[in-house]
Amino acid sequence: MEEKDSVVEVTSPVGGDEPQEKKARTPLFHVTKRAQIGWQKAIGIRVIAIFAALVLCAIITVLCTGDNPFSVFKTVAEGAFGKGRTLVTVHDIAILLCISLAVTPAFRMRFWNIGAEGQTLIGGLATAIVMLNLHDKVPTAPLVLIMLVAAVAAGALWGFVPAFFKARWNTNETLFTLMMNYVAIQLVEYFLKIADKTGSNVVGPNLLGTGIPNLFGVQYLLNILVVAVLTGVLYVYLQYSKHGYEISVVGESENTAKYIGINVRRVIIRTMLVSGAICGLAGLLIVGGASHSINSNIVDGRGFTAIMVSWLAKFNPLYMILTTFLLVFLDRGADEISTRFGLSSSFSAILTGVILFFIIGCEFFINYQVHFDRRPFAKAKKQCEPQIKEEE
Amino acid sequence: MNFIAQFLQRAILQGTPLLFGATGEIITEKSGNLNLGIPGIMYVGAISGVIGGFFYQNSVKSVNPFLAIMIPLLSCLLGALLASLIYCFLTITLHANQNVTGLALTTFGVGFGNFFGGSLIKITKSEVPYVALTKIAKYYHSSFPFAKKLGWFGTLFFSYGFLVYLAVILAIVATVLLKRSRIGLQLRAVGENPATADAAGINVTGYKYFATCIGGMVAGLGGLYFIMDYSGGIWSNNGFGDRGWLAIAIVIFAMWRPNLAIFASYLFGGLYILFNYINAKMQLLPIIQMIPYVVTILALILTSIRKKRENQPPASLGLSYFREER
């Protein structure tokens, strides 16, 4: 529909009879859907949006800290890539990327899985349970294998439940997966209460053991490599495999999928199993491969951020590397600003929000075209012209 | 009797922010907008009220009761309105994806609340140690003077601040408007099938903006209630917790009916504090706190299996409407 129509109201000389007919509308612009857009133009629009968002972020930061804008950007860069921070930043990117990869197959199918938070957490919980009970009884190699199986199975289960009901009875998956998050959170809280009798909110390495050993003695390296491989695998799976094709067809139109003989129910359940399993893997990487501890906040909203990452990257695993990089870079940078100026650590959430609003908004200009050209309306305008003059 | 009345009173106190949130989300969802930004908007509403109250309390020596109530109330409504407008502009005017926009708004809103809650003193360079609006909160908290004389009856019905009653009134008004008025009918038409509504001459964009903004403002009041009345005017970061998501759960549980949401909110509020009243081990606390979510899931499954027409979500919920795309 044409937005922001300028309404030219003409007051009738006689006054008040049939006011509806005296209204003439001349749209300032009208909007059509683009059939297609060149990739240069699409990237250009996004770059402009991100740049505008960064400028706004800079203004907000300067207002809150009173620092000059250039040193603010320096602080952000130091926060992300300062001494001893690069590895942590890359690891943060890897974890967020892993969860983003996880939600992607489901989203390509237009299955709105906003339960990545819970699926990841339950994977972490399964890992922690295995570590708690077996870390001093089983040698490292089989232990890691058991952890992997447990985490992936738990994540897959958390994905399966809403998928089953969606496939069978068309239960709303957005709300279902959202509720599953909180079930997972409370289960973790319960685990913490049982595992640690002292009543602390974290169960750490003293109870869980050291988990997955470091590769070549470098912390986080294994996690980063796993996610890198996963990115490639998922790209091929979605782009070139039969499963990936089926997912795309179901996403485009369920009726088409049924017509060409795709078993839609099976695709929905299978895809959510994959989605949940990768989330479970992310939980394993966080608990087993990095922190060796668990609390109910280990995922820290990344299950939700991942949805935005995936969507911003147009569900393409390779673009996701860029979007995760942008968000993590900003997050770490904003954290640095808030510590340096003694502000609340929630500062990064505000900046992330601003960036997201801009990128979300710019999609409009990629998908739609705004015509300021009023020629199609010339005829309509002509009819109104005498009235407009009268008003002047 | 006194014991039960006290339990119910606390359940109602806990349930009120949920009721505000749920009523707001129901109004919003009836227009076809699945606003997952409600948890964020509630934070924005809360902190806007706190900011307004903070400036007022620090600028005068003795607070005037009328202004003490009106300034936070109006700044809360304004903050929630602005946050809702971000959502409206992105999803309605720019046809952005509702889930993604809502989640981004929640990220932003929760961050906004916690940031200003934690940094307000630093930014304004004031000399108070922490944000405590006790002088103002007193007026939000004051209830009928005769409540104490009436025993359990007074405790149960007259011992609340005015926002608790406002929540119930808003829910009832919303029910009547949605069900019985022309505006409600047209709003539901927009939520069920915007193309048909558009063809019938209903201003789809206008209704969507209207419902989402009103819904957001109602939800924002939930945040204000939580800070001013429930917490006695003291802000604590993340103190509001995940009540916003619980409000969305209630929307489903109440099957998109504000009048049912009243009971659902109090029920969930009761479940929230149940562990204080039963002799369970502390270990079981998380399991008890899980009950509202599990119950919601069961409600969701049951309504989808029964497929009763009047219990379904609005048909176009979560979809954006573009007139030329048909």
Topology:
The complex is a heterodimer of chains A (392) and B (326).
Chain A: E1 6-9, E2 23-26, E3 30-33, H1 39-65, H2 69-81, H3 86-108, H4 116-134, H5 140-169, H6 173-195, H7 205-208, H8 221-240, H9 242-252, H10 254-259, H11 264-291, H12 302-312, H13 317-340, H14 347-367, E4 368-371, H15 378-391
Antiparallel strand pairs in A: 1-2, 3-4
Helix pairs in contact in A: 1-14, 2-13, 3-8, 3-9, 3-11, 3-12, 3-13, 4-5, 4-6, 4-11, 4-12, 5-6, 5-11, 8-9, 9-11, 12-13, 13-14
Chain B: H1 2-30, H2 38-59, H3 65-93, H4 98-124, H5 134-141, H6 151-158, H7 162-180, H8 182-192, H9 194-199, H10 204-230, H11 243-253, H12 258-273, H13 285-306
Helix pairs in contact in B: 1-6, 1-7, 1-10, 1-11, 1-12, 2-3, 2-4, 2-10, 2-11, 3-4, 3-10, 5-10, 7-8, 7-10, 7-12, 8-10, 11-12, 11-13
Q: How would you classify the helix and strand content of chain A by structural class?
A: mainly alpha
CATH classification class of chain B: Mainly Alpha
The N- and C-terminal alpha carbons of chain B lie at a distance of 60 Å
Oligomeric composition of the shown chains: heterodimer
Gross morphology of chain B: globular
Supply the CATH class of the largest domain in chain A. Mainly Alpha
The proportion of residues forming helix of chain B, as a percent range, comes to over 70%
The order of strands across the largest sheet of chain A is 1-2
- Count of the domains of chain A: 2
> On the 0-100 scale, what is the average pLDDT of chain B?
84
CATH topology of chain B: ABC transporter involved in vitamin B12 uptake, BtuC
Q: What value does the Rg of chain B take, in angstroms?
A: 20 Å
Coarse structural class of chain B:
mainly alpha
- Provide the low-confidence segments of chain A as ranges: 1-22
Arithmetic mean pLDDT of chain A: 78
CATH topology name of the largest domain in chain A, in short, is ABC transporter involved in vitamin B12 uptake, BtuC
SSE string of chain A, helices as H and strands as E: EEEHHHHHHHHHHHHHHEH
Encode the helix/strand succession of chain B as letters.
HHHHHHHHHHHHH
Largest interface, with Cβ-Cβ < 8 Å? A-B, 55 and 65 residues
Q: Could you give the distance between the termini of chain A?
A: 28 Å
